[in-house]
Amino acid sequence: MADLLSIGLSGLSANKTSLSVTGHNITNVNTPGFSRQDAVQATRNPQFSGAGYIGSGTTLVDIRRTYSEFLTTQVRSSTALSSDVEAYRSQIEQLDSLLAGTTTGITPSLQKFFSSLQTAAEDPANIPARQLVLSEAEGLARRFNTVSDRITEQNEFINKQMVAVSDQVNRLATSIASYNDAIAKAAANGQQPNDLLDAREEAIRQLSTYVGVTVVAQDDNTLNLFVGSGQPLVVGSTTSRLEVGPGQGDPTRFEVSFVSGGSRQGITSLITGGELGGLIRYRAETLDPTLNSLGRLALAVSDQVNTQLGQGLDLKGQVGTALFGDYNDTALAQLRVRAFSSNTSNVQPALNITDTSVLTTSDYRLELKDTTVPPTFQARRLSDGAAMTVSPNPPGAYPATLTFTDAAGRDQGFELALDSAPAAADKFLLQPTRRGATTISAQLDQPDQLAFAAPLRSEANLQNRGNAVIGQPEITNSFDPMELANLKAINSIGLTFDAANNRLQFSSPLPAGVTITSPALPALPAPQVQAMGITPGQSNQLSYVVEVDVGGVVQSYTISQSFSGRPENGDSFSMGFNANGVSDNRNALKLVDLQNKQTVGVDRSVGISTGVSFTDGYGDLVERVGTLTAQARQDSEATGAILKQATNNRDSLSAVNLDEEAANLIKFEQYYNASAQVIQVARSLFDTLLNTFR
Question: Is the whole-model pTM more than 0.70?
Answer without folding.
Answer: yes
